[in-house]
Amino acid sequence: MFGIVAEKTGTGNLTIPFVDDTDKLYLLLLEKHPQLDGIKFAIAVNRQIVHQNTSLAQNDEIALLPPFSGG
Amino acid sequence: MERFERQIILPELGREGQQKLKMAKVLVAGAGGLGCPAILYLAAAGVGTIGIADGDQVEASNLNRQVLFGFNNIGSSKAAAAAKFISERYPDTQVNVYDRFLTVENIPKILPFYDIVIDGTDSFATRYMLNDASVLFGKPLVYGAIYRYEGQIALFNTGKGSANYRDLFPKIPDSGEIANCSEAGVLGVLPGIFGTLQATEAIKWITGIGELLINKVLFCNLKNHSFYEIDLVPSNEAQKNRPATLEVFLKTDYSVNCQTVSDIGWNEALESSNPKSSVFIDIREPDEIPRWSNSQCLEIPYGELEEKAELFSEETSIFLFCQHGIRSRPAAVELRKTLKRNNIYSVTGGVEHPDSPVKQLI
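YS: structure for the whole thing
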């Protein structure tokens, strides 16, 4: 996890119970960390950005990547 | 000994590469934390033409990271001060100064002259505008963005099949959702590293050296030395969020897209206020001055806001303000969510804004 997502959840890394796809993952994250509500981030599955709901396998590596505006 | 000897002897660069650098024209958008080191290293490397676009003036708070400026530059145009710094040291680099912010109107007049653009801007509005313009004009864009101790860098739009910013983040986030440097703080060396990485990608692209960050984004966290590279695939769906033609681009209002609807200026807030149906709330701590003695103004520090705001009826418009408009914006966004209504606003610029009635009292 990066940027504000890591700050809001208080950690850079999380191991979570298996979920089928990225939509379910998002809901699980929101349930565990309601403070992520309204925070925008991109999702990468095994270091590949995904925009659509994507099915997940055991031990997939997920990255939550918020946009930064600072320059 | 000649000026570029140490890089000409690099086998991949050579005299040919040096000539390419001399002929290259690089536009640096934003002479801030990222732009300053990028400009410095591009000029040092012998890039022949550098355009510097920035409408801002140097402030004391810039000096921890914007290394082309010193105390003597406070109050001067960033673009002009950066150009002076470079011209004095590297007269072999032609510097073009654009001492104004990039807009949809002026970008089409500036961008076509350059070969490649470096994004050193500090707002989502400008980042999306610059990305969309670089796609329309077919110019590669070296993207860089920072947050506290972290940075992101990529090379967008190098030709057919090359992803751009929209493939990473398709839509503009609300500006209240993610803080920029002045709100979030930034370790000074962070943009130094990322601006230098941006200059590196530009030099590599110009000279054809090494592997470029095409269809890749590099994320880096200085706190734990983590580098994380992800792959990006151009997405037709994501590109639908971008103006498809120059005509549409010229009519796109990026600033409105980026502003949360919760922002309001002092004048508009004062005009629309009414003792019966609206209230101003000073969300600063009690020791912050100047205070505003006005019967329409209540003082509720940010931390107590949520519980006390429920006291107001749904019809009451709430205008939140703080010292600079920085805390009041997320406060308004949060309060809108909590109270599930939209007549809650953040007064732009806060007490320190020139239009502020609070400031005028002192």
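YS: worth flagging: The CA atoms of residues 49 and 94 of chain B lie 5 Å apart.
IM: good catch. Also Chain B has two domains: 5-258, 263-360.
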